[in-house]
Amino acid sequence: MSDLFKKAISLGVGLTIVSKEKVEKAVEDLVKRGELAPSESKALVDRLIERGEEERGVFKSAIQEQVQRVLSDLKVPSHKDIEALEAKIAGLEHRIAALEGISRLEGTLPETRNE
């Protein structure tokens, strides 16, 4: 599934790059035909490229939101969830080690005690 999302993001980035090249060519054609002053061409290209980058950012955000929704729907644990579980396991391991140490000092393990 991550391959699909990577391809979608690459497509979005690819479209932005293609758009940049097409914008530069279109503006160059406008200058050649005399419909745009050469001094204005760079500013126009810069504005259009900036807008393309903004669109790419919007596209990337939309993809990230969709990925988060899918992961949530599939109940895939987040990095934060995994870290919390790792901390809990470490705490339990520490408690087990402490209990085993106390049992050894008493000379008997909890499973073998007679009560």
Tell me what the structure shows.
This protein has helices at 2-32, 38-73, 79-106. The protein has three helices and no strands. The longest helix is centred in the middle third of the chain and has 36 residues, at 38-73. Helices cover 83% and strands 0% of the residues. The protein is rod-shaped and about 95 Å long. With 115 residues, the protein is mainly α.
Quick overview of this protein structure:
The chain has 115 residues and is mostly helical.
Sum up the structure in keywords.
115 residues; rod-shaped; 3 helices
Uncertain residue ranges: none
> How would you characterize the largest beta sheet?
none
Task: Determine the number of helices (DSSP H or I, runs of at least 4 residues).
Answer: 3
Query: How would you sum up the global shape?
Result: rod-shaped
Along the chain, the helix and strand elements come as: HHH
**What is the percent of helical residues?**
over 70%
- Compute the separation of the termini in Å: 56 Å
Average residue-wise pLDDT:
79
Number of strands: 0
